[in-house]
Amino acid sequence: MKDTHIALSIFIPVFNEEGIFRQNAERLIEFVNALSIPYEIVICSNGSTDRTVELGCALENAYPEKIRFFAINEKGVGRALKFCIPHFKYSYILSLDMDLSSDLSFIKEVLTHLTDYDIIIGSKKVGSQNRKFIRKLGSGLYIFLTKLLLGIKYTDYSLGSKVYRKDIIERYVEWINDYGTDYVINIVYNAFQDGHRIIEIPVKCFDNRASKFNLVGEGIYRFRKIFALRFKHKGKACHNKSILPYNMGC
Q: Please, are residues 198 and 156 in contact by the beta-carbon 8 Å criterion?
């Protein structure tokens, strides 16, 4: 019998993904079907100019019980998330990248933590990553600054492999900017400040392709946003010290 408390809305923002769209969506469906849980895959195209929208509509028609596809005209992963919030059917939102660069075993792993935490952070640094040196370097510097300026000790603020309770996203929706990827750090930081339950667990990550983001531009944007977040909360004491890392065992 399926546990109705364990149910996922899997959110995937997409931009010009015609080359991998269908095969990766079907691979994801096959994997999650094997878990025997209620779920939906909510895919939102944001500003795609290739055949992504056409393929998304066809995919939804082929898997109407599993796939819900939306398309908005303007680019922006935050904009896509905000659009989809009212459409999520379930109480837990799991965010993935369309290239499925994170090992899908992460989905199975989160099921053991789902009802005990408000946010689950899948971390490449705690797990393993096959990524280019420059991306590791930029990520490491970003994490260092979040610890230094914000006082939080998590190690991954990328879009993919994150789980949020839906009410957490709704509570901090004003912190979800239309453009850029900083909504992850914004939500995590505010949830941490407010004493919500957060856990970080390992995830395996592989660079399947070049990033769709301009790494230099995105890096500058994210670093600027750390400082903006810090000064916006200046004077607000960080009262929650209960970091809950994953128990890696012996």
A: no
| 2 belongs to a structural domain | no
- CA dist 73 and 5 (Å) reads 34
Contact (CB, 8 A) for 90 and 9: yes
Q: What is the mean pLDDT of residues 50-76?
A: 98
- The identity of residue 79, as a single letter, is R
Residue 44 corresponds to which amino acid?
A: C
Q: How many domains would you assign to the chain?
A: 1
Burial of 124 (0-12, 13-18, 19+ CB in 10 A): buried
CATH code (residue 58): 3.90.550.10
- Structural domain including 71 reads 8-245
Instruction: Give the span between the Cα atoms of 198 and 69, in whole angstroms.
Output: 29
Mean pLDDT of the chain: 87
| 73: CB partners within 8 A, 6+ apart | 47
